[in-house]
Structures are given as C-alpha cells and as structure tokens.
Design goal:
heterotrimer; A mainly alpha; B alpha+beta; C mainly alpha; A: mainly alpha; 16 helices; B: three-stranded antiparallel sheet; three-stranded antiparallel sheet
Chain lengths: 416, 182, 264
C-alpha cells in the first residue's frame, strides 16, 4: 500500500511514489481528490493564467538575460542587438514586454473577480493578503524591468518615481541617493534594478505557492458565494478544471499572440525607442498602462508627500477590505446595491487609468481628484454602509440547491 | 477514479473521442515544439557574431620568412610566408615518424603560404614563433611555452604533450594575394 | 441536461467581440490627431496588416535617398552593410557598398587609429564623430540617428512621411527664428531641419520619377525597415503560430465540452 494512497499499475510510478509520494500529492492538490465547486465560471480561470504568465516572464526573462548588458552605455544597444541579431531575439523580447501587460491584465481580472464575489471574506482574508503582496511585488518588478532598456521613458520614469522618496521627511534625500547609488539615476541604479528584477519574480513564485496553499485550505469560492457543503456541491479538479484551464490557456495564448505578432509596440511608448538622455526630459512622462491608475492617484494630491501617501494608501486600503465590507453575504450576485457600487468602482478605476495617461493639466486635474476621492470613499464609506444597510436577495442554501432550482427540480435532501 | 468523465457514451463514441484527444495532443505537441525551438536557437551565434565568421587577409605586405597573426573567430591564426629552406624541411620529413602523421602537401594549398590556427592542441596556449626573437623549437616552426610542445615548419607536432598538429583552418585564395579564412 | 454555466459562454462571446472590435479600431484608417495640433493622414503601407511584407523596390529607392540626401547629417548606426542583403542586394553588391565607406579601425602596432574600407560586418559610418560635433555643424540642433526613427515617433512611417512633405509657409507670414523652418507635421511646427527633399534630388536607379512625395514615401518605407527589419519574419511566423494556436484552442474547447458532458 502506498503511503499517499495513490494507486497505479505502472511500476515506475509505484517506485517513485513509495519514496516520494509526489503523485498522491498532485492528486490531492490538483487532481481527482481535490474538490472544487461545480459552478465555477470562466472568471475562475484567471488564477492559473496568472501563474502561467509568471512562468512565461521568468523563462523569457532568463533567456533575455543571456544577451542583455546592464550598463548605461550598452543597455539600449544590447536590447537592439537582441531585436536584430540574436536568433528569435525579437520574438523573445516582444513576448517578455507584452507578457508583462498580459500578466497584469490577467491579474486585474483575477482581483476584480475577487472583489465582486467576496472572495476576500472569511475565511480567505490571508489568501487575499497574499494576493495583494504578489500584486505589489509585480508592480515593483515591472517598474524596474521597464528601466532596463534604458530608453527615454525608462530613464525618466525611474527619475520621477525614485524622486518620490525625497518626500520622506528628514531622511528623504539620503534614502533617495542610497536608492540611486549616486546623485541622479545612472548605471549604478540600473545594475541594482537588474539584480532585483531578476530576483523578485522568484520571490513571487514562492509566495504564489503559499497563496495556493492558503487557497487549498478552504478551497475556492464560487459565483454564488456559498461554501461547498456536501459532495453534491463539488466536482474533482481533474479532469474538469484541468481541461477548462487548458482551454483558457489556449484562448490566453491566442490573445497574447495577437499582441506579440501584430501589435507588439502598441502598448508601449515610442519615446522608449530613444536612448536615454539625462539632459532632455520627454514632453509627457507616462508609465505603462497597468500602473496608470496609481499614477493618477499620485498626481491628484497637490503635495508631493501627500501624493505618495495617497498612492500607498490606495494599495493599503485593499488589505482592509475583508473588514470594511460588513455584509454577511459574499457574492454580489445577491447584493443589488453593492453590485452597482462595484461597477462604479470599475468605472472609477478606468477613469483613473485614463487620467493617468493625460498631462496633469486643465480638466484632467479635476477629474483625477474626483476619481481619487471616490476611490477612497468607495472603500472607506460605501463598503461598510452598504454592507450594513443593504437587504440582500435570498441566498441559496447550497450550490446543489441552486442548480436544482434552476433545473426545476426539488433541492437535494440531506443524505441524498 | 476508475472511470473518466465522458466514458459514459455510446460505443461508437470511442473512436471519435480518441481522435479528438489525439488531434488535440498533436496540436499541443506542435505548439510545444514551436515554443521550444526559439528558446534553444537563441543561444546559437547571433547575426553579428556570424558576420565575423570569416576574415580576409591581405598577403601582399608579408615578406618571405615573415609571419603575421590575424584574429579569426576570436582565435589567433598564424600566416607564414615560408622560406625555401622551411618548405624543403617540411617536405622531407619522414611522415611515419610523426606523432600525428600528415604530409606537408596535405596542409598547404600553395607551398609558400602556411595558414594555421595558432592554438596548441594540448591545452590551448598560443605557441611562440611568430616574432623574429621568439624561440621556434627544435624544428624551426613553433614552440609552446606552457608544456614544451615543438611544432615543425608545417605546424606538425614533433615533440611534447600535444596530441595533434596545429589545425589548418578552412581558407581559400580569393585573389593571388588575398585569402579568406572561414 | 441543464448546464450551470451558460453565463460563461455569453461572457466569452462578449470578450471575443471586444477583442475583435479592438483590433478593428486599432487598424482604422483616417486622420490622426498628434501632438500639439499637428495631424497627418494614415497611409496604406504594404508592410501593414497580417500579411504585410516589404517590397524590395521601394526599400532600395529609399536606401538611395538616405545615402544621397540624409546621410550627410543623419547616422544609421544600427544597420550593418550585411543587412543590405535583406533589402535585395546581393552579397557582392553589399560588399561593394561597404567598401565605399572608410571605417575607423585600430589601434595598429604603433598605437595609431587608422581607417580602412568597410566590410560586410561593419555598420554605417555616422556623419559626425559625436553629438557635439553634430550640433556644432547644425546650429546647435542634433540630427537624430534614423535607424529607429519610425518606432521612436508616435505616428511611425505616416508621421515621417508627413514631416518630409509638410514644409509650408508659416501662416500669416509669421517670422521664424533664424535657421528654423515651418512644418505642418512637426510638433510645435518649427523644425531646425531645412526642407531636405526637392523634385529630382535623387536620380533613381530604377528610373522612377523622383517627385517629393515619391522620395518621401520611399525614404519613410526604408526607415520603417531599418527600425523593424524582422517584420516579415514576425508576420510569417505569426501566421503559423496563430493558426496552430487557434486550432489548438478550438480542439481544447471540444475536449472540455466532451469531458464536462459527462456530468449528470
């Protein structure tokens, strides 16, 4: 009898399993012995897609690192060498650059799925926190990665964002010079960003494992927000969700291919094809699209320190969401008022993103401030109030009961 | 799980189901191959490296008895314009006595011009003998200072730990006075 | 047999339509409003679109325009003479073009730098030794290297073309500072480069009539290639990969449906 209980007719599998029960481990975590709610929608594909996006970034990144030179005098040229001379270098570079956008797109959908269906609520608060930590590390990694090609946007985005640290009272200047390794952004900054850009994805990889571990304790949430109670509510992860995830991956790769092969520079900025010039600032400094909402919040507050605090708070407030949302109903499916405010939040974030890309002038300043204000109002005021005051729609007793109701059958009795 | 989901079906479904899985598996394998190849090929020499895969050498400034060193694919190449004495010494050697038997005629295209990769076949040091003041070993060719290998006027190893003669790179005479190496 | 997740299909349909809509919107033709009130037409280049390729004739004409007109001030340092094989020159022709240039090499045995005729492995020689020298010869303005210019400007080859044909009299007879010219496409409308093209500035090797629009079009075409020499390879591979992936996604969908049909 195998230690983990995994049976197989293959002698090789048995040999391995007896010494290291990897097969029963896999079977219990992603296999036939791991129960998942039977009603998960395609919105539940995005976690696995995020994991795959991470692997794609790591693999293409390691390969790019074989050719890239992290020095101010050579970085830009080394990237052009990759694009022109390295076999398939153009492909690997475009995959890595567009892969960053795909990674964030997938993670944003994953996060907003969580916000809609209350996936952050008890008992998944830590799972939510781990996800936020991954998100923050992703943003740091993406920011440093964007500096590496050493184009105009690379250099000046690095200058603007590192300059934020001068806002720290008293020690700000010293901290910023410490970050730079000099008096301005330069090669020392580049080399340390390169080192950390290579390191942090592996830290993310580790935290992803803890994130999945936390998930596996109480298993997945589902569109109804009702926990699995009996085996009638669940199906085995394999083969149902393994094959659904594979199909999701197929669609993801088609969308990915669309960007890589036909619009590889659309999501980027032309100024980054100009080598960095420390003596000439581009007319409009803009981060990549996935950082725009935070950039808008940063610029909305007129004071430098205030802007930094607001930007940090906009992420920090997300950690408090499990407690700010006072409703005892998880899923927005049964929360008509919450649902409307949710879509308002989505619109607000899109507005913030749009404003982040515009020059900080005229009407954009006002829109940005209103949108920033609403963002905080949503989390600090709307969530608790709606949770208290809303009368949710009746929540089904179980997933199986909801399924039966939809099919016009009576709900399954206990023990059935 | 003894039965897979989807096993419940008519008997005729069997071949259609298998075809689907085989077709999907094949497409996935093609996809995987398309994915893996660039990751491997990117480590092959890049365009700018391949551009330096051949070097042209102008022979006209080289005088009789003179040796020059050029760089080819990152390594030194010895080009020596041999004297009549060096040519005859090379031709008269008893081939069967050589540690790595090879006739001189197999190692040159024009007897006056000797083109060799200047890397000792023992452990890769660069043998001496290019400059007039260098020791040339007991056979008047080259001498490797690292472990004492001697090469003759055809670049063949005569004594010492080197197992093979100095390599002759691929080259051709593009004109009377120009060779292209590689 | 009921299915629980009909929502998934609807959402996927919406997502698919959104993606298609995005693609259509991106490819839409029409005027583009660019920086600071400038605008230019989107043009139809043969290298646009899924099946886009570079035609060798305009590439070679554009190359001729670069060499005879632009190279006096603008470098092309990311293009090596061996790359000219990709625009239709033979090895021997590219070698001959390379040999027309004097390339710095060295130091020699005496420690001196020297020049020698170019080889295939060499890159185009910049017209000025460094940026300061370039500025000194151009009233303080720096003529940018053109290798990446179509990717370094938002409008790409459309913008480059518009700039080349966009010289005009300043409106209302406005006086421009010394050395500046009025240009409709350039942001701010004042450009330090005087009009670089005029009719028959170049006598095309293939006999094409060298009007200013023709010269501008060929040059923009060539510069699109210098910025993106791998475009054809990218689109060729893209077609293969997208077909395989779409088929694979379709097959995976069928597999998914089959496996899920087993429920209930």
């Amino acid at each position: 009898m195998q230690p983990g209980g995994f049976q197989s007719s293959s002698k090789i599998v048995q040999w391995i399993e007896y010494r290291l029960p990897i097969f029963s481990f896999l079977d219990h975590s992603v296999g036939t012995q791991y129960p998942s709610p039977k009603n998960l929608s395609y919105l539940w594909n995005f976690g696995s897609l995020a994991g795959i996006a991470l692997v794609i970034q790591i693999v293409t990144g390691i390969v790019l690192a074989m050719h890239y030179v992290p020095h101010g005098d050579m970085a830009f040229d080394s990237v052009e060498r990759i694009m022109r001379d390295v076999n398939y270098g153009w492909l690997i570079r475009y995959i890595h650059a567009n892969g960053s956008s795909m990674f964030f797109a997938v993670v944003y959908i994953h996060i907003f799925r969580g916000l809609y269906y209350g996936s952050y609520k008890f008992p998944r608060e830590l799972l939510w926190w781990l996800g936020l930590v991954i998100f923050i590390l992703m943003m740091m990694t993406a920011f440093m990665g964007y500096v590496l090609p050493w184009g105009q946007m690379s250099y000046w985005a690095a200058t603007v964002i590192t300059n934020l640290f001068t806002a720290i009272p008293w020690a700000g200047e010293a901290i910023t010079e410490w970050l730079w390794g000099g008096f301005v952004v330069g090669t020392p900054t580049l080399t340390r960003f390169y080192s950390l850009h290579y390191l942090i994805p592996f830290v993310i990889f580790g935290i992803v494992f803890v994130h999945i571990w936390a998930l596996h304790v109480h298993k997945s949430n589902n569109p109804l927000g009702v926990e699995m109670k009996t085996p009638k509510d669940s199906i085995a992860f394999h083969p149902y969700y393994t094959v659904k995830d594979m199909f999701g991956l197929g669609v993801f790769l088609v969308v990915f291919g669309f960007w890589v092969f036909y619009f590889p520079n659309y999501l980027g900025h032309p100024d980054n094809y100009i080598p960095a010039n420390p003596l000439q600032t581009p007319p409009h400094i803009v981060p990549e699209w996935y950082l725009l909402p935070f950039y808008a919040i940063l610029r909305a507050i007129p004071s430098k320190l205030g802007g930094v605090i607001a930007m940090v708070a906009s992420l920090g407030i997300l950690f408090l969401v499990p407690w700010l949302d006072t409703s005892r109903v998880r899923s927005a499916t049964f929360r008509p008022i919450f649902k409307q405010f949710y879509w308002l939040l989505v619109a607000d974030v899109l507005v913030l993103g749009y404003v982040g890309a515009q020059p900080a002038e005229g009407i954009f300043v006002h829109i940005g401030r209103i949108a920033t204000a609403y963002y905080f109002v949503h989390f600090i005021l709307v969530l608790p109030l709606v949770g208290w005051l809303e009368r949710p729609k009746p929540v089904p007793d179980s997933i199986a009961a909801a399924e039966a109701a939809k099919q016009g059958r009576p709900a399954p009795q206990a023990g059935e | 799980m003894a039965t897979m989901a989807g096993d419940r079906g008519h008997a005729g479904d069997g071949s259609r189901r298998d075809f689907l899985y085989v077709a999907t598996g094949t497409a996935a394998a093609v996809g995987a191959a398309l994915t893996v190849w660039p990751l491997i090929d990117q480590m092959n020499p890049a365009g700018d490296v391949l551009a330096l895969a051949s070097t042209e050498v102008d022979l006209s400034p080289i005088e009789v008895g003179q040796s020059i060193t050029v760089v080819w694919r990152g390594r030194p190449v010895f080009v020596r314009r041999r004297t009549a004495g060096e040519i005859s010494a090379a031709a008269e050697a008893v081939v069967s006595d050589l540690p790595d038997p090879q006739t001189d005629s197999d190692r040159v295209q024009q007897t006056e011009w000797l083109v060799l990769v200047g890397v000792c076949t023992h452990l890769g040091c660069i043998p001496l003998g290019q400059k007039g003041t260098d020791p040339r070993g007991d056979w008047g060719g080259w001498f490797c200072p690292c472990h004492g290998s001697h090469y003759d006027t055809s670049g063949r190893v005569r004594k010492g730990p080197a197992p093979e003669n100095l390599a002759v790179p691929p080259y051709e005479f593009v004109t009377e006075t120009t060779i292209k190496i590689g | 047999m009921g299915r629980i997740n009909t929502m998934g299909t609807g959402r996927r349909l919406v997502a698919g339509l959104a993606a298609v809509g995005l693609a259509v919107w991106i490819s839409a033709t029409g005027p583009v409003i660019a920086a600071e009130g400038t605008s230019y037409e989107k043009r139809d280049w043969s290298f646009y679109g899924i099946f886009g390729t570079y035609e060798r004739a305009p590439l070679q004409r554009g190359f001729q325009v670069y060499v005879e007109v632009c190279a006096a001030c603008h470098g092309l340092k990311r293009i090596a003479f061996r790359n000219l094989v990709d625009i239709g020159f033979s090895d021997a022709e590219a070698k001959a073009i390379a040999a027309e240039y004097e390339v710095e090499d060295g130091p020699d045995q005496e420690g001196e730098m020297f020049t020698r005729p170019g080889r295939l492995s060499d890159y185009f020689v910049p017209p000025f030794a460094n940026d300061n020298a370039a500025r000194a010869s151009n009233n303080g303005a720096l003529p940018p290297d053109l290798s990446l210019i179509t990717k370094a400007r938002g409008g790409g080859p459309d913008y480059v073309y518009a700039l080349l044909v966009g010289y005009a009299e300043p409106p209302g007879g406005e006086e421009l500072p010394d050395g500046m010219s009025y240009n409709l496409a350039f942001p701010g409308h004042q450009i330090a480069m005087p009009p670089p093209l005029w009719a028959d500035a170049v006598e095309y090797a293939d006999g094409t009539s060298a009007t200013v629009p023709q010269l501008a079009e060929d040059l923009s075409y060539f510069l699109a290639w210098t910025a993106e020499p791998k475009l054809e390879e990218r689109k060729r591979l893209g077609l293969k990969v997208m077909i395989v992936m779409i088929i694979l996604a379709g097959l995976l969908y069928a597999v998914k449906r089959r496996i899920w049909a087993g429920l209930h």
